[in-house]
Amino acid sequence: QVPLIESGGGLVQAGGSLGLTCTPSERNFVIYANNLMAWFRQAPGKEREFVAGVTWRNNKKYYADSVKGRFTISRDAATDSVSLQMNSLKPENTAVYYCARKADAYGWNDGSKYDSWGQGTQVTVSS
Questions:
Q1: Which residues pair with 99 in a beta bridge?
Q2: CA dihedral of residues 60, 56, 24, 68 (deg, nearest 10)
């Protein structure tokens, strides 16, 4: 069983908005204060890439240059959930979006450093 579950994907027209949410799938999955939670995406035929991340303790946020000003990551410590609000979507944003956890914020955009992943949710942006 994957430790994280993503929801909220779907089909949207270019220029539209979509919100994704990530929650633990197991009650014993713990998000620690030093952890960083992030969203990655992988488009067909392309490598997985970092989209956005947020530190659990102090809510520091990181964004890929390609999504700055359009995407917003947020976290809710009460529900252990992480959300990604995506606005002004473009066809090139079409991908499977994954939620992931990392022990700390060092190397925040390096997917190989993350220890827990969800199974992904499809986002399709039509032109």
A1: 39
A2: 0
Check residue 43 and give left, alpha or beta (phi > 0: left; psi -120 to 50: alpha).
beta
Q: Which amino acid is at 4?
A: L
Whether 27 has a pLDDT exceeding 90, the answer reads no
Full strand arrangement of the beta sheet holding 4-7: 4-7, 18-24, 81-86, 71-76
Task: List the one residue out of 23, 79, 70 whose CA is nearest residue 51.
Answer: 70
DSSP state of 46: S
Structure confidence by residue, pLDDT tens digits, 32-54:
999 999 999 999 999 999 999 99
Question: What tens digit of pLDDT does each residue of 88-114 get?
Answer: 999 999 999 999 999 998 889 999 999
Across the chain, the runs of DSSP E, i.e. the strands, are: 4-7, 10-13, 18-24, 36-42, 49-55, 61-63, 71-76, 81-86, 95-102, 114-117, 121-126
